[in-house]
Specification:
The chain has about 280 residues and is mainly alpha-helical. It has helices at about 1-10, 40-45, 45-55, 65, 85-100, 105-125, 135-150, 155-165, 170-185, 190-200, 205-215, and strands at about 30, 35.
């Protein structure tokens, strides 16, 4: 049933189903280095992680080599993996993170948060495995902040959230995570300041609006920052027109004619009226 549903969805979007990828159940029991995937793990995996871990070897790597000959990474849901060689660490971080949320033992929860943070951190600490200007850095730094906060390392958590915001000032989840951290520290003023700044950058965020209301903010919501006008296209520099050289001067009429010899003294030749 799962494969049938995934197959129908794949064809509906114009893509052929991928055996072993569209059927996420095929991942259950697969070993990915130190992780053996469970049913609960694969149920929460993002599509890009299903793809990466399906093509990975037992060490979780080399998936990018196996995907080079395909066009799968051009599909919108897999764009996060395009040009990277370390996204399996992000996926491992996601698995540890969601195992943490299902864990009831506080000590094990903290251990899982630390394990997730290490894998997330591997992604951002090795830029040589990422394409230039990879747009998901703010997302990964926000996950690191979440795990640092869960590990009660508040200073590192604040640093990670602030890094995410500096990379993408409109990423609302970074503001929400930072506001939660300040609330956990009983610093309501800082939490509200963070939410207000987030709303000024991302006024349509429902999550930030809810947190603003929970913190006792007054309506209307904060005024958004004005959008920067698009840069005017540069006008091309005027072409420099070199003056054409003047045409060569023409000699005056008769200038090349040789002067006639002076007439010999005496009567002019053939002069009818001469005396």
């Amino acid at each position: 049933m799962l494969l049938l549903a995934a197959t129908s969805a794949a064809w509906a979007t114009g893509f052929a189903p991928i055996p072993g990828v569209d059927d996420v159940g095929a991942l259950v029991g697969k070993k990915s280095e130190r992780i053996v995937l469970t049913t609960d793990d694969v149920k929460i995996l993002e599509p890009v992680c299903v793809l990466v871990l399906s093509y990975a070897d037992e060490k979780g790597a080399r998936w990018w080599l196996r995907l080079q000959s395909t066009r799968l990474l051009d599909r919108p849901e897999y764009q996060m993996a395009k040009g990277t060689k370390s996204l399996h660490h992000y996926c491992w971080g996601q698995i540890y993170n969601f195992r943490r949320l299902r864990e009831s033992d506080p000590k094990k929860r903290q251990q899982l948060a630390q394990a997730a943070a290490r894998d997330y951190d591997f992604v951002v600490s090795n830029p040589e495995y990422l394409p230039k200007d990879w747009p998901w850095l703010a997302k990964v730094h926000t996950h690191i902040g979440d795990m640092r906060n869960a590990s009660e390392d508040t200073a590192a958590g604040i640093t990670s959230y602030q890094k995410a915001i500096s990379l993408n000032p409109e990423y609302d989840l970074a503001y929400l995570g930072l506001a939660t951290l300040y609330s956990d520290m009983k610093d309501s003023a800082k939490a509200m300041e963070t939410v207000v700044e987030g709303l000024r950058h991302r006024p349509e965020s429902m999550g930030l609006k809810r947190r603003y209301d929970q913190l006792g903010g007054r309506k209307p919501y904060p005024e958004p920052y004005p959008k920067s006008p698009p840069a005017a296209p540069e006008e091309p520099a005027p072409a420099v027109v070199k003056p054409e050289p003047p045409p060569p001067s023409l000699p005056a009429p008769g200038a090349d004619a040789k002067p006639s010899a002076p007439a010999a003294p005496g009567k002019p030749k053939y002069c009818r009226f001469c005396p």
